[in-house]
Every structure is written in C-alpha cells, then in structure tokens.
Amino acid sequence: MAADPIRVGIVLREQDLGAWAGRLPELAERAIAAGIDHLTVGDHVSFAGGHGADGLIQAAALLAAHPELSVQTGVYLLSLRHPAVVARQLATIAQLAPGRFVFGVGVGGDDPRELELCGIDPRERGARTTEALRCLRLLMEGEEVEFRGRFFDLRGAIRPAPAPPIPILVGGRSDAALVRAGQLGDGWLALWVSPRRFAEAVARIDSAAADAGRAGVRWGHALQLWAGFGASPEDARRRLATAMQGAYSLPFERFERYAPCGPPAAIAGALAPYLELGCRRFNFVPEGTSLPAAMEAAVEVKALLADPLA
After folding, report:
1. Interior CA angle at 11 toward 54 and 241, to 5°?
2. SS3 20
3. Which of 2, 61, 95, 158 is the most buried (most CB within 10 A)?
4. pLDDT per position as a tens digit, 109-164
C-alpha cells in the first residue's frame, strides 16, 4: 500500500486570528497559494484569565473563507461540551464543507479553572473525554443511539451522518490518551515527544486497537510542534524562545529538544525520524518574521521531507 502524502499545516494562535480578523479570505488564499495543506486552530473556553477562542467556530469561519481550504482542530476540549451538541456541529460542518475538516480532540487541563468554570471536575476530564468521544462516534453514524454511561444518557439521533466521515485525531501523552486513540481515534496527535517516544506510543495505540477489535485502521498520526523559522539558527531560536516563554511562563530549555529552529533544511532534518516512523502530517506552531513567511518555510520543509536530495 502506498504511503499517504506528506501534509503540513500551520497552527493559528490567538494573536494570528486578531491580526487577520476581517481578512480571513486573504489568509486562506495565502495559505493555499503557498502550498499549505491545512490550517489548525486551538480551542479554549477560558484559559489563563479568560483568553481563548472556540475551536469549531474558528474552523467554520475559515472553511467558509475559501472553498478549497482544509482545517483541523488541535485540540478541541471535548470534555467541556455535551457530545450530542458537538455531533450536530460536526454534522453541520460536514454538510457545508464535506471532506475538508479533521477533528482533533484532547482533554485540556492546563488551566483547571477552565474546567471548573464549565462545571467539570478536573480529575474527571480524561474519563469524561473518553465517554464523550464514544458517544460522538455513535452519534456520527447517523443511527438511533441509546447510551447510558457515567456522564451521559443519550437517546436519539443526529442525521445526516457526515459524508465522508470526519477523521478524529486524539491528542495526549498519557497511557490513557494512547488507549483512547487506539480505541476511538483515526490517528494520534502527538506533542512534546521524541522519536523514540513516538515509536513507543504508536505501538501502544496499535495494541489498544487490537484489544478493541479494530483491525486494519489506516492511521493518520500527526505531530504538532513549535518551530522557529529563519536563515540564522541563532535568530530563529531567540524569537522562538521569547514566544514560548511568554506563552508558557517556563524556560525555553524545557521545550528546546522538541522545538527545532533554523532554516527549512535544519527543521526537515529534525523531523525526518518521525517521517520514517510513519508520521505524514506535521502541524507547525510557527515563529518567524511573519506568518506568510512561515508558511513558505513550512512548505520548503515539506518538499525536503518528500525528497531530501531536492
């Protein structure tokens, strides 16, 4: 079976959306013209003192901005929502933009106050995400659903079912997250992992899928990473360190091994081991001289991964 094509995406941060507000068609056109395969958006109800943006609203706005643009959430905090409502939102997106959306989900928890604001016990976010995802899978089949679980009681249907089905990528690094991906996902959305850990995680996902009786899944594993783009590795590192320390309030050295810096060739070299392990989808949280420049550099990385001798 031929390998899936390499795809690169750009993760839009809150400041990117603010800078391009009112110009989303232009942003989408630039991404497509540059050769970017998809744009990725995050999701928060109230993070770090009230910040954030709804992932599905962002996705819908971008999908409406251009008929050829593909969009992914990375990641949507499913534990904060009722799965029936999310299933309806996804079915609507599928009707308006069939085949152009990938649903990346995760548990969140970086800011426990966000969960508490939504009435969710932070200690239950993992179990709640698993159950909500199980419900979502059932609802997205378009059939009548009867489900009684720990968190949700469902009786009803969401029609029409998304066609084609919306791929689901499951984020998280814990063993529970990997089992969730194997049981309920179409792929794993990796973050902060070395190549060795990536290989171990993929093996665990395969094992969980086999235990769940899921044979022959064509996985769409993805790696999401911060990257500093620039001709000078030193300048790229300096910009990326400033951005990440501002975002996480932690020293850049905590992230440096997972966040490559420099020209496209250096970044492609850092990603080659993941490509060899079967990862075909890379989402860059870019730090560069500008967002359009970062898009062009990401596409250069894609070309080098596809043909290192080019």
Report:
1. 115
2. coil
3. 158
4. 888 999 999 999 999 999 999 999 999 999 999 999 999 999 999 999 999 999 99
Residues 252-294 pLDDT 10s: 999 999 999 999 999 999 999 999 999 999 999 999 899 999 9
Contact partners, residue 209, CB within 8 Å, separation at least 6: 182, 183, 215, 217
Residues 286, 166: Cα–Cα separation, whole Å: 26
Using alpha carbons only, what angle is made at residue 264 by residues 262 and 265, rounded to the nearest 5 degrees? 95
Q: Give the model's pLDDT for residue 172.
A: 94
Set out the domains of the chain in order of their start, with CATH numbers: 7-220+276-286 (3.20.20.30)
C-alpha to C-alpha distances, 88 to 39, 49, 56, 115, 162, nearest whole angstrom? 22, 29, 11, 22, 10
Q: Do the beta carbons of residue 23 and residue 297 sit within 8 Å?
A: no
Query: 39 φ, ψ to 5°?
Result: -105, 145
pLDDT at 8: 98
- Specify the long-range contacts of residues 155-162, CB closer than 8 Å, at least 24 apart: 156/84, 158/84, 158/87, 158/88, 158/91, 159/91, 160/91, 160/95, 161/91, 162/90, 162/91, 162/93, 162/94, 162/95, 162/98
Q: In the chain, where does DSSP find H-type helix?
A: 14-19, 24-34, 55-65, 83-96, 112-117, 125-139, 175-184, 195-211, 233-248, 264-276, 291-306
Give pTM, 2 decimals.
0.95
